């Protein structure tokens, strides 16, 4: 399958217009304008972000800069330093990694802004943070903090049983998880500028991430062979906007950057996801729940660059110490599955 | 009688970042050049991850991405020294965008704690994340006068401003005096890192190496913002705008991402620069 994402000319345009018409209006009621310094006002003379397609281009553009890289979950400034020194392209700041969220139970929420701020002050790479599904106020807070990306994440306890956050009106870009093509395109139409597989976070078992990537690939292959009439029917079946589905079928890939996430624990797992067509990899509990975090983090970074070179993969997989213990997804109780959150 | 067309291989460093976008625009640019030339070279564009792949290249693009990641991966993949040789010792044509500009700078600040490795090649100091975090990222319509110097007719006559994408972008904070060795004064500054020096290997490389840094483009935004409050021109308040594109001999750097816009004009211009650099080399070697 072709996996080349074309430069954004025209692409961002189409993506941004979808879902924008209602988004801006409703958001203006709920979100106060935070930035009103004179500089940004006058700069709009030469800066062309005022147009929605350019705003989306800038959001999706950062995701493109992360391609071929590893984004690591960190719970404090010290771990963030280790991740940066290992070559992470970004860190995800959160209070508990998914493995601990599973073990401890209870409601998982947005992290303490103080802790996110400390991480932002510690590293120079982009810092992402998670908000609960549908919790647009957590998103407003994260935007005010200045995080570089928001993950509207099923790993946290959902705040809204029906609605995802309307993401277009925010200046900060969003990444969202998906299990299949319909879910991915719904998130993009809401304004997600980056997609990831949901996988099954905190398990160290890659099977669900593989399933989600394989499903998206198979659905795109099917769509690519369809006539416009058939695409209309498919759009209805999978609950995806027709225009986005059509674009995806033309490109033969998702129209935004797509990362692997949820259960990646080894360099081989990371390379597997890359060979399946992912643009990069999130590693959550897999690094800091393992024996030698720094070494494993470096190994996974090397594996994502040289994902087609088994010799390099063999070399970096040596002597990594203990991997995270993990939970077998096959023996997991249905109600423990995080991937089922969101639709 | 047909002469065999020379083959020119242009690599895009593919350790991390937006390399596939550059490859696509190079293809578009080569097609635009071919439409204007009777007998152009046969272009070959390729991803570069290993020293062997770099060895086959006549010119190189270092794409946007995370500069810390790229320099760490380069160093762990045995690419750092080959890259320094490519850019500085052999002085082959190289272009860096955003993270690539940072890596090509002889000096950089606001790097991660403990610094990062630079390749060098441009006598400038670059400030990382100059505009701030992602929420400060933006697009701008720029006038790029150097594009008028292209031979490719469409690029030459196309007067549209160039829509440029700045993502957590660096700027050139200072043009440094050209020195043969390391930038010693810069190295002594707090929070500033420098690239190790490499001497040019031959006369051709030396001539490229000895050229001065030229400012190719500025972002007039901040000066304009100021001038709203006073009638002073940008020049009078001592600011002409941030430096966002520089060239020194055959090494070129931009702080924005032409690879994100689908507009191949800068790639057309740069491929012509590569051709010019290669013919300069051939003339000297004759």
From TrEMBL, chain A:
Superkingdom, taxonomy of origin: Eukaryota
Presence of the UniProt keyword Cytoplasm in the record: no
GO terms of molecular function: pyridoxal 5'-phosphate synthase (glutamine hydrolysing) activity
Protein name: pyridoxal 5'-phosphate synthase (glutamine hydrolyzing)
Pfam families the record matches: SOR_SNZ
Protein task: Catalyzes the formation of pyridoxal 5'-phosphate from ribose 5-phosphate (RBP), glyceraldehyde 3-phosphate (G3P) and ammonia. The ammonia is provided by PDX2. Can also use ribulose 5-phosphate and dihydroxyacetone phosphate as substrates, resulting from enzyme-catalyzed isomerization of RBP and G3P, respectively. Also plays an indirect role in resistance to singlet oxygen-generating photosensitizers.
Binding of D-glyceraldehyde 3-phosphate, residues: 214
Ranges where the PdxS/SNZ N-terminal domain occurs: 56-261
InterPro entries: Aldolase_TIM, PdxS/SNZ, PdxS/SNZ_N, RibuloseP-bd_barrel
Origin species: Coniosporium apollinis (strain CBS 100218)
Entry keyword DNA repair: no
UniProtKB/TrEMBL annotation, chain B:
HAMAP family, sorted: PdxT
Reactions the enzyme catalyzes: L-glutamine + H2O = L-glutamate + NH4(+)
Family, similarity comment: Belongs to the glutaminase PdxT/SNO family.
Gene Ontology terms: cellular component: cytosol; glutaminase complex
Enzyme class: hydrolase
Gene3D superfamilies in the cross-refs: 3.40.50.880
Record-listed E.C. numbers: 3.5.1.2
InterPro entries recorded: Class_I_gatase-like, PdxT/SNO, PdxT/SNO_CS
A GO MF term: transferase activity
Organism: Coniosporium apollinis (strain CBS 100218) (Rock-inhabiting black yeast)
CDD domains membership: GATase1_PB (cd01749)
NCBIfam families: PLP_synth_Pdx2 (TIGR03800)
Protein name, per record: glutaminase
